[in-house]
Design goal:
single chain, 336 residues, mainly alpha, two-stranded parallel sheet, 12 helices, 5 strands, 53% helix, globular, binds tryptophanyl-5'AMP, cytoplasm, Trp-tRNA-ligase, Tryptophan--tRNA ligase, nucleotide-binding
Length: 336
């Protein structure tokens, strides 16, 4: 049976990139995998958040907010195990064990670290450097078979496979299953609405570049109206958009929101301009996001209830994680 595991950082609100690249798949997989007798685990990666500075009050509030958002988006805490890393201490404990297996040379190749640390590598936190090892622990702890993520996390999951393979070899065991990254075909990488050479992200300084779940309907519509595009008409085939990254990105978003193939969408818009395309795109985005936003706001009326969802999820997660940690300790000769 499949065991699906994935996480999201509580650093800011959910945006369209997270939603289309990850969370939408999570909800779909929850429904499919459960029907096949598998299991789905989704968590708030709160331990990953402070690898870059985040104020404690923000971390606290956003952990609750992100949980409410996931529930509002369709993650059902009675069917999926929904928790935050901190309440499952085995994540931290296994990370330490895996730190002894991961090689410095492997971590030096991680592009996210290079991007995030930028020129000031000496000033980056050790946590930011070690971030992918915590991610490996997140999935190996549950013997995840499938990990639905955006394309930007693929390299981290390949590292998790390398770590699992080396652990299994070094300690002559088959303890860890190799996790398979599942990259959304429809929305592997949603780009900024202002600059299609950078991905849509919470940390982009331009508010206009990222459609957030907490945006009002009017703000969502305005962001699409002002999204960078070009003066050309939409072509008949996707191939003709190869040199038009902004146009390609808007088409990708449209198709992913509508659950249609990009080529199929062009069937409706070939020969038309963005003046016709953008309002339809804005309507689709509002139709997808507004109900989630409104439900999230409603759920946040009772923050204690959200906190208790995380507690109950953590209890179930610990029951799955504890035997794996113990087996890893045993394999290494640690007296647990
Ligand atoms: P995070 O919080 O940055 O993003 C959550 C998920 O959203 C995807 N994503 C995108 N997909 C398409 N286009 C975009 N512009 C875009 N931006 C973000 C991310 O790929 C991710 O799937 N390290 C992870 C969290 C994590 C995790 C894990 C994931 C911690 N442990 C273990 C899987 C397994 C992260 O930073 O996600």
């Amino acid at each position: 049976a499949k065991r699906v595991v994935s996480g999201i950082k509580p650093t800011g609100n959910l945006h369209l990139g997270n939603y289309l690249g990850a969370v939408k798949q999570w909800v779909a997989m929850q429904n499919q995998v459960q029907a096949d007798g598998g299991e789905t685990l989704f968590f708030i990666a709160d331990l990953h958040a402070p690898t870059e500075w985040i104020a404690p009050a923000d971390l606290r509030a956003q952990t609750i907010e992100m949980t409410a958002t996931l529930v509002a988006a369709g993650i059902d805490p009675n069917r999926s195990i929904l928790f935050n890393q901190t309440r499952v201490p085995q994540h931290s404990e296994l990370t330490w064990l895996l730190n002894t297996v991961a090689r410095v040379g492997w971590l030096n190749r991680m592009t996210q670290f290079k991007d995030k640390a930028g020129k000031n590598r000496e000033g980056a936190s050790v946590g930011l450097y070690d971030y992918p090892v915590l991610m490996a622990a997140d999935v190996l702890l549950y013997n995840a078979t499938h990990v639905p993520v955006g394309e930007d996390q693929k390299q981290h999951l390949e590292l998790a496979r390398d770590i699992a393979t080396k652990f299994n070899n070094d300690y002559a065991t088959d303890l860890f299953a190799l996790p398979e990254p599942l990259i959304s075909a429809a929305a592997p990488r949603i780009m900024s609405l202002r600059d299609a050479s950078t991905k849509m992200s919470k940390s982009n300084p331009s508010e206009q570049s990222v459609v957030k779940l907490v945006d009002s309907d009017d703000t969502i519509a305005e962001k699409f109206r002002k999204a960078k595009s070009d003066a050309d008409l939409l072509p008949a085939t996707v191939a003709e958009l190869a040199d038009r990254p902004e146009a390609r990105n808007l088409l990708t978003i449209f198709a992913a929101l509508a659950d249609r193939a990009p080529q199929d969408v062009l069937g409706d818009y070939a020969g038309k301009g963005f003046g016709a395309f953008k309002p339809a795109l804005a309507d689709l985005a509002v139709a997808a996001l507004a109900p989630i936003r409104d439900e999230m706001v409603r759920l946040l009326d009772d923050k204690a209830a959200i906190d208790s969802i995380l507690n109950q999820g953590a209890e179930k997660a610990r029951a799955l994680a504890a035997p794996t940690l113990k087996a890893a300790q045993d394999a290494m000769g640690l007296l647990a």
